[in-house]
Specification:
Helix 4 packs across helix 5. Helices cover 40% and strands 23% of the residues. It has a domain of 177 residues: Rossmann fold (3-Layer(aba) Sandwich). The two termini are 35 Å apart. It has ten helices and 17 strands. The strands form four sheets. The chain has a six-stranded antiparallel β-sheet with strand order 3-2-5-6-7-8, with helices on one face.
Length: 371
């Protein structure tokens, strides 16, 4: 099963240069526009290459937090540069970071004033073993996934998120001052609450609209992967679904002051993942959870592709080592289809045969060297 697409343009990372990035000191690699397979032992640097691609597309890492840790041992900086081929032209993206200074991101040698201006220009989707946290861990992981998905296609949404977080930080700072005994400025709190409510409602509306599309895509992909008569579903759990956000903030002020944080708002939203109306987190088998995760990520891919009329890069990190043969074959069939554009796959066995009609290129990764 593949979602029907009409003449999507193909985003293609043609080459990448890594300098002092994780276990790479200096490395230049050229990729094909179809399937790129990176094989090597654990720790060789396969995931680090995918991390570098994520930096170039989204300005930060996917597998590790913090930029300092991305600098090669005993070095003072790292630099990445990628050549992207789009329907429009060849575009160069470079990102440099030195400890103690802000990251410098350039698009065709023009420095971005704000890193957020780059988000969505070169979309990508990552599927990795640790993504199972989306299913089994807390709400923060699921909100981040949803926000990442929408932000790659809607810049206004990203702006709202950043503004909401700034206002939320102001409100929490004021609550801490009140808790410490400072005289209460109710008028100031009212102004902050109005700002939070306005932006929160905009975020809620966009999440709700986007989820209607994502749910449909999820159901189609889950049916393809699982071959089972089960219905996959996402419920949007938000205070704003049924309650008045403004009134709730007023009602919660005393509690919020004692806790020194805002206890209601879209920053507390969650997604309930269900199979046949039962929580997959509580009642799903390991196989069901993995199938749901894959379907969720492929739904994310299609959502971005449909909204941007362009295929995102698809990065699969050692995913086949964690799946049974049936799910591996289903994911591989989907990932290597002509609808997926450029795909990067890492694996530990270079003899692993991946049959695909896509143009393919194999790489061997050994101790920070790519051959």
């Amino acid at each position: 099963m593949h979602i029907c697409r009409l003449q999507l343009s193909i985003l293609h990372l043609s080459s990448i240069q890594l300098t002092n990035f994780r276990n790479y000191t200096e490395q230049n690699v050229s990729f094909c526009g179809g399937l790129n397979i990176l094989s090597g032992l654990n720790g060789a640097g396969k995931t680090n290459l995918l991390e570098a691609i994520n930096y170039l597309c989204l300005t930060k890492g996917y597998f590790h937090s913090g930029d300092i840790g991305a600098i090669n041992f005993k070095k003072e900086f790292f630099r990445l540069q990628g050549e992207f081929i789009t329907e429009r032209k060849i575009e160069t993206i470079s990102l440099a970071f030195q400890s103690g200074t802000p990251k410098i991101l350039k698009h065709d040698e023009i420095i971005y004033e704000k890193l957020a201006d780059h988000i969505g220009k070169f979309p990508l989707v990552v599927i990795a073993p640790d993504d199972i946290a989306l299913i089994i861990e807390g709400s923060e992981d699921r909100r981040k996934w949803l926000d990442n998905t929408i932000s790659q296609v809607n810049r206004l949404y990203l702006d709202d998120l950043m503004q909401y977080n700034r206002v939320l930080a102001q409100r929490n700072a004021l609550l801490k001052l009140w808790s410490a005994g400072q005289s209460r400025d109710e008028d100031l709190m009212t102004v902050i609450d109005k700002q939070l409510v306005k932006i929160g409602k905009q975020i809620h509306a966009e999440r709700k609209k986007s989820l209607q599309i994502l749910i449909s895509l999820l159901q189609k992909h889950y049916a393809f992967i699982s071959n089972e008569n089960e219905t996959a579903l996402m419920n949007y759990d938000s205070l704003l679904n049924e309650s008045d956000f403004s009134k709730t903030l007023i009602t919660n002020r005393e509690k919020d002051m004692m806790l020194q944080r805002t206890t209601a708002g879209v920053h507390r939203d969650d997604l309930d993942f269900l199979l046949n109306e039962f929580s997959i987190k509580k009642f799903g088998s390991q196989g069901q959870k993995k199938s749901f995760l894959i379907a969720l990520k492929l739904a994310q891919f299609d959502f971005i592709a449909q909204n941007k009329n362009e295929t995102p890069l698809l990065l699969l990190d050692d995913i086949f080592d964690k799946l049974d043969q049936h799910r591996s074959e289903k994911l591989l069939a989907d990932a290597t289809s002509k609808n997926r554009g450029q795909v990067f796959i890492t694996c530990t066995d270079w003899k692993q045969t991946i049959i695909s009609d896509k143009l393919s290129k194999y790489f061997i990764v050994e101790n920070g060297l790519i051959k």
